[in-house]
Each structure stands twice: as structure tokens, then as C-alpha cells.
């Protein structure tokens, strides 16, 4: 069964705004309008900021170090990130933790790829809120020119965290790689990454395509936004 057959369209989450230049529903959080994008990202147009989480760069190199052959993932991740920046016109990028996967994944090829990507986006301001994988992998190389911050980091009235449990009040986080399971007629089912809004904390899906997702059971007050290839749809 197709994704569209399992997803049910819903009304816009926020009304009264002009149609945005990029597609995706919006939520109000901490007095800010945040747009949920199918690129697994959040767009804060007022601040000119794109937020993503869980890139896990170097994970394939860590697998190779354990004698598990895995094709390159970094080029695709950086390409999608470039497209996201081009679509939004963002001048600032916020990374909500787990930029790097592991210390043994810090191979020369991956580091060089990011250096070259950074040169293409030399005017971009990048802030990394350290996640649990970053703590083990270490801060990124200086050539990447990223500001490294501890959670929670307050920006524009919102708390930016990696672990949702570290957010006190309205904020954004990653870490959980949230996935929703959709069920259709018979035994049809589909797993899709999702945004999860829980107790004023918006949890982002992993930006990396090379991570496992965790199926979360939403509570009565939670909002779930399933992410398909080209859209984000409110499920409850």
C-alpha cells in the first residue's frame, strides 16, 4: 500500500498566516512560528534559522573500522543539507546534537568532505548543541567552523537540546529518532519518521538516513506529524 493511502490529510496546525515560501505545516512554540519540513528539519523564518538533529557523520567509517562494509553516507547527507539551505535561504544552521557518530568514525575522507562542504557555505553560521555521541566522538575539527554548545542552550526564547528530558519549558530536541507506525486495512503497515510535539518540546526526526528509528507511543496530549517523501502531515 502506498504512503498516501495510509496518510490522512489534516487541517493546517496554525491559521492566520500567509502561505510560506517552503512547504510544511507550522506550530507555535514559545511564541515562535516553526515550520516542519519534509527534509526532517524545522524552519524558523523569523530568525532565518534551520534546525536539524542527528546527522551521525562518520557512522559508515565506524562500521568499516569494525570490518562491516558500508557505502559512503556523508556525500548524500551533505547534499541534502545543501538543498535544504538553498530552499530556505537560511543564514544560520542549528544542529541539535549527534553531529558525529563515534571517535573511530573521524576518518580523513569524511573530514575532508565536510571541509569542502563548509567552504561552499562559508557565510553560514553553525551552532552545535552537543549530544551523547558528540561527547564520545569529540568536538568537530576547527576547520568546520562550528560553535559547540552545552544543552540546554537558549536561543530566541526556545531551549535547544539534544535529549528532550533536558528541555525545561518550550524547546526543541532530537536523540529519539521518532518513528510512527501507520496501519491500513488487513495487515498493511508502514513506518515513517515523524515530528513529535510533547509537553512543549518538539522532537525532530533524525536527519541521517543511516540510523534506526524508534516507534514511540504518543500520549493523549501529544501531537504527531508523519513525514513522507514530500510532505509532513498532522496525524493527531
The level-1 CATH class: Alpha Beta
How many separate domains?
A: 1
Poorly predicted runs are 1-20
Termini gap:
21 Å
Strand content: 25-35%
Can you walk me through this structure?
This protein has 236 residues and is of the alpha/beta class. The protein has one domain: Purple Acid Phosphatase, chain A, domain 2, CATH 3.60.21. The protein has 5 helices and 16 strands. The protein has helices at 3-6, 59-65, 74-88, 108-120, 132-137; strands spanning 26-29, 32-37, 41-44, 49-52, 92-95, 125-129, 147-149, 153-155, 158-160, 171-173, 178-183, 189-198, 201-203, 214-215, 223-227, 232-234. The strands form 2 sheets. Strands 8, 9, 10, 11, 12, 13, 14, 15 and 16 form a 9-stranded mixed beta sheet that branches. Strands 1-2-3-4-5-6-7 form a 7-stranded mixed beta sheet, covered by helices on one side. Helix 4 links the parallel strand 5 and strand 6 (125-129). It starts with a helix and ends with a strand.
Amino acid at each position: 500500500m502506498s504512503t498516501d493511502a495510509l496518510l490522512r490529510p489534516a487541517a493546517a496546525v496554525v491559521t492566520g498566516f500567509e502561505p510560506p515560501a517552503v512547504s510544511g505545516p507550522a506550530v507555535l512554540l514559545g511564541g515562535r512560528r516553526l515550520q516542519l519540513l519534509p527534509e526532517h528539519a524545522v524552519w524558523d523564518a523569523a530568525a532565518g534559522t534551520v534546525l536539524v538533529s542527528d546527522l551521525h557523520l562518520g557512522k559508515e567509517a565506524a562500521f568499516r573500522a569494525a570490518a562491516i562494509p558500508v557505502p559512503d553516507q556523508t556525500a548524500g547527507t551533505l547534499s541534502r543539507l545543501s538543498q535544504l539551505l538553498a530552499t530556505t535561504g537560511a543564514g544560520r544552521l542549528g544542529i541539535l546534537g549527534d553531529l558525529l557518530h563515534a571517535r573511530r568514525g573521524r576518518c580523513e575522507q569524511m573530514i575532508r568532505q565536510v571541509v569542502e562542504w563548509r567552504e561552499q557555505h562559508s557565510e553560514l553560521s553553525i551552532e552545535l548543541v552537543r549530544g551523547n555521541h558528540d561527547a564520545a566522538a569529540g568536538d568537530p575539527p576547527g576547520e568546520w567552523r562550528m560553535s559547540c554548545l552545552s544543552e540546554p542552550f537558549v536561543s530566541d526564547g526556545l531551549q535547544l537540546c539534544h535529549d528532550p528530558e533536558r528541555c525545561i519549558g518550550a524547546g526543541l530536541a532530537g536523540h529519539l529518532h521518532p518513528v510512527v507506525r501507520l496501519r491500513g486495512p488487513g495487515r498493511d503497515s508502514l513506518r515513517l519518521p515523524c515530528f513529535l510535539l510533547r509537553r512543549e518540546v518538539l522532537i525532530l526526526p533524525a536527519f541521517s538516513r543511516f540510523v534506526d528509528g524508534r516507534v514511540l507511543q504518543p500520549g493523549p496530549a501529544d501531537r504527531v506529524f508523519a513525514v513522507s517523501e514530500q510532505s509532513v502531515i498532522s496525524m493527531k
